[in-house]
Amino acid sequence: MGKRTLLFILGMLLLIGSAGCSTGDKKASEPKKVLKVGTSPDFSPFEFMDEKNQMTGFDIELIQALGKQMNAEINLQNLSFDGLIPALQAGNLDAIISGVTITADREKAVLFTEPYYQSGLVAAVRVENQEIKGWDDLKGKRIAVQIGSTGAMNAEKIEGATVRSFNLSPDTFLELKNGGVDAVVNDLPVVQYFIKNHGAKDFKIVGVPRDAESDGIAVQTKNTELAKQLNAALAEIKKNG
Ligand code: ARG
Prior knowledge:
Blueprint: H1 3-22, E1 33-39, E2 42-43, E3 47-49, E4 55-56, H2 58-69, E5 72-78, H3 81-89, E6 95-96, H4 104-107, E7 110-112, E8 117-126, E9 142-146, H5 150-156, E10 162-166, H6 169-177, E11 183-187, H7 188-198, E12 203-215, E13 218-220, H8 224-239
Helix pairs in contact: 2-8
Bound molecules: arginine (ARG).
């Protein structure tokens, strides 16, 4: 290599180097990785559509914050809840954040991050219902649930119960209001939020929350690297409040 070529290359390297530095962020020159994250935005306060038809909620804010922490762009995908795990397994998603409860069965299909939220299941009935006061009273009753949810799995175990499954979580409450079912079984924060915002005069929660459940972010079983990065980012965010 001639001296001139060498000088030229050195000059270029310096230029590239200073261009990188001028942004004050070394990572800026690396292309941002894009994470395809699936969610079912029918689950306020975790994920729902706002007035501008944008996905919003606790999970959405959390995943955006994690993305920032990981220098990754979050590409949100709106899917039905029961389609999320199959889409992840098929490789159409990198991750799921959708108030997904960590269960032993699901752990066979996906890899979960550390839990980020502690939840639990409750039943809701119409306010005038004096018969159903707790879980035991749900035997033989008609119960509305969201397809594929832990609420559905739980309701199916209740003796003699007729379980009606709905694609979207809010439709279970509509069915309860219309008298199509006697109760809804769903996650406590979602039931609380729904009653507070849409049904204070129509519904009430009965019984004590069942199955302390933890929500986690799911990735493909083989994607231990992404799980590791998400866990590190989660720990960082928890530390910073
Ligand atoms: N926590 C429950 C489950 O994992 C319900 C989650 C439903 N999430 C949703 N975005 N609709 O089965």
